[in-house]
Fold Neutral ceramidase.
Amino acid sequence: MPINMWAEILFLKFLIPFLDSGYSTTQSPQATQSPQANESPLATQDSTAPRGSTLTQGHMATRMSPVTSTLETTPFQNFSGYQIGVGRADCTGQVADITLMGYGKSGQYARGILTRLYSRAFIMAEPDGSNRMVFVSIDIGMVSQRLRLEVLNRLQMKYGSLYRKDNVILSGTHTHSGPAGYFQYTLFVIASEGYTNRTFEYMVTGIVQSIEIAHTNMKRGRILINKGNVDGAQINRSPYSYLQNPQSERARYSSNTDKEMIVLKMVDLNGDDLGLISWFAVHPVSMNNSNHLVNSDNMGYASYLFEQEKNKGYLPGEGPYVAAFASSNLGDVSPNTLGPHCINTGESCDNPNSSCPIGGPNMCIAMGPGQDMFDSTQIIGWIIYQKAKELYASASQEVTGPLASAHQWVNMTDVTVWLNSTHTAKTCKPALGYSFAAGTIDGVGGLNFSQGAMEENPFWDTIRNQLLGSPSEEIKECHKPKPILLHTGEMSRPNPWHPEIVDVQIITVGSLAITALPGEFTTMSGRRFREAVQEFASYGMQNMTVVTSGLCNVYTHYITTYEEYQAQRYEAASTIYGPHTLSAYFFFFRALAKAIATDSVANLSSGPEPPFFKQLITNLIANIVDKAPTGKTFGDVLQPLEPKYRVVRLTKRSWNSSETHHTFLTVEKYEATSQTWQIVHNDASWETRFYWHKGLLGQSNATIQWHIPETAQPGSYRIRYLGHYRKQDFLRPAVILSFESTSSTFEVVTT
């Protein structure tokens, strides 16, 4: 890699503090070579290829015969519900030697696992199967454009035209504790220290598999909808931005956050439970940027609780019932309900710049409501779960009516919007402002940038200009009053730094409209957006419920209102297409709503197809061969267990955990009647924690913890460890070998 490219990467790593973003790739996702072989941190010249149904890259040249649906058939006139299928599949990927996605904090690498990550798919079809839609909620930071394109391609190879870009929505829950490495635009690649094919492949495979399971399990059923307010689970983390909105508008609402939760309850014709989709606006950042364990955060914990309740007798991640807690307009919404305080003095730092008298913005951090981040995750997740449970139980309004979908690709960098009958404005090429580098009260930047910055800094401008070039006057004028830190729309080496082509999409299920938002809308942006999309009513579709589903299909950072943009806090500095971004989305989504309402979707143009880059920066994190110390073998117990426990901690000789596994651990109870060991917990259980401690020269340890719950039955237990280690002989490619290890038996007692 050229020296100047290394300098750019180091510079950007310092400037990307709380990215809420993603990553990139260098080879066909299904490449069969060893994951470690032939990977080098090399950026090559820009190379793109359109992604369509005729793609012939690598393994995709072999087309599978389309699979037809196996719907239960019934006369349309005798059945008013839908064909419904639900599916869940693991998409965890690496749990070590990879950056965690979300905070953009240097050194925040995965070092173990708290909970597994899942893709949860829901298919809804009209009774005769003529129209259908797919909604997938995935325990990842957000959906990257590359991820969506590859998922659609694999669905097309297997199912033909059944599942398409217009009727499939992929939505990220926005956990900040999932693996990075799956984006294709350069800013996100640098933030994640390169692309990793293994994690990308696990994500794609998990998403597709969840859809396949839902497709296979489709049955006749009904959908019920309910709504209600959630209290005690959120605060607005940029209240001074929110106050920039007109007072008359703010007076219409009782809170500066959206408290409403929308729940879809899915049952079969016998009334037996099938699944749930819930939308609620809150950032999954209860696990803060000191965390190193892969997990699904507060929204994932709500899913965990709901699925455990409905799937009695099943381990986490197993069982037929699927519960998705999906993201919404969470842009300025934090779960850290104790609010921002100076961690060095304890005083409040709830001010326009989120800064402390001593230590500045780096000391201003929001916490709560628990004693630590694990406690807070459980508290917020429990509140969300309890409200969903209440709404689910009382749901009585049935969703009926036809299904429809509309989708376009649009160039967000050159959109003319009408401000009034005489004046227009335009969107901009992407750019990030100075406050982007400040981070938020949920995760500060670390370089003493502050939120609300309205002026450029000569020091940082000089460094940027030397390494990356200077922003043009055109882009600076377009983004005013944002002082531009990174003019990403004018940077294309080795590939474009931000997307230009963006998905806009709506799916309707009867009177429900699910809008796929390609980023993080703030509270007021979401409210205005829902009103704008009520274009349905103008064409006869009355009383539509509009859902703002966040982090869908492609990631474009944040979308604030025009007024919030003027304050230039973090969310505004991260509104990459300029002050009129929200108005541009109004225009596009209204057009989709009109097309659905007037049955003219066929007349919509598909728009400019996005690129699929073939040559990108590979993973910069070294994967080394694992070695056991002299006299030790992999799986040796280093710290023996006591005979009796209420809390268990087990340390073993480990391997490099960058490899994935169905589960890394099991907690097993001995059943005397059958004389067998029964698994009671796995690494998807909230009660277990798997820590990987990276050592020198390939020597690492793993610590397995079981936090014994009050519900644990007294008896004999053991912990089993399922691992891999990387071995490489001279002049041979690296291979991954598996091993198992079992603890001694111990007793769990009640007192």
Notes: The longest strand covers residues 715-727. The radius of gyration is 25 Å. DSSP finds 14 helices and 40 strands in the chain.
